[in-house]
Amino acid sequence: MTEHHFEPSVAQQTALVDHLVNAVVTDATGEAQGDICLGEPPSARYFMESLGPHTVEPGGAAPRYGRTTPDSLGFESETENASAITVKARASFYYAALPTRAQQLEWAGRRDEPYRLAPLFKRLGVTVGPVEIVLGHEAGLRQTLEREFQHAFEEAVKQALQDPRIDRRVGNDRRP
Q: Which residue has the higher pLDDT, 133 or 148?
């Protein structure tokens, strides 16, 4: 009996990765919902990470309040010293915004009595890179990437602050 060993082509592998990104990642980040999270905070729906946040005590000794969001990522590989890799990363964040009338009606329905504004959060994507990193010279690696991310997020925050629908109210009171 001959055993047939299937070896997917590069095109098939690429198609599978694209499918996984579209089916899993876009759903997990909120991108699949049109970059809007209506009705609850994004951290209640979307949570993806590879490592626990570096600010959390690994043994669980420290008390944790609320939802802790991801702020770490890790991977490893074997490479020759002085090899270069190119890093390009995507991340996103949400900011509170005021709902449109249609979004408010979708969330609360039509009522005569007063009701609170619908919690609405808009997603903004942030892309960093491509950044070329020479391996074996890790001394400034973290600082280089932190600077790149900081600059990219600062630009995205400026963009969010220009949104006329951003929720600028102080506190969490969303009542009329």
A: 148
The runs of H, that is alpha helices, within the chain are 10-20, 26-29, 42-45, 101-108, 141-161
Report how far residue 27's alpha carbon sits from residue 17's, in angstroms, rounded to the nearest whole number.
15
Neighbours of 125 (CB within 10 A): 13
User: Where is pLDDT greater, at 66 or 115?
Assistant: 115
Question: Regarding beta strands 84-96 and 36-38, do their DSSP bridges make them parallel or antiparallel, or are they unpaired?
Answer: unpaired
The end-to-end CA distance of the chain, in Å, is: 74
Residue 119, preceding peptide bond in cis (omega within 30° of 0): no
Residues in contact with 152: Cβ distance below 8 Å, sequence separation at least 6, in sequence order: 126, 127, 128
Our CA angle for 154, 160, 163, nearest 5°, is 150
pTM here is 0.65
Domain boundaries, the chain: 35-53+69-161
Q: Is 35 left (phi over 0), alpha (psi -120 to 50) or beta?
A: left
Cα–Cα distance between 77 and 156 in angstroms, integer?
31
pLDDT in tens, 125-137: 888 888 887 777 6
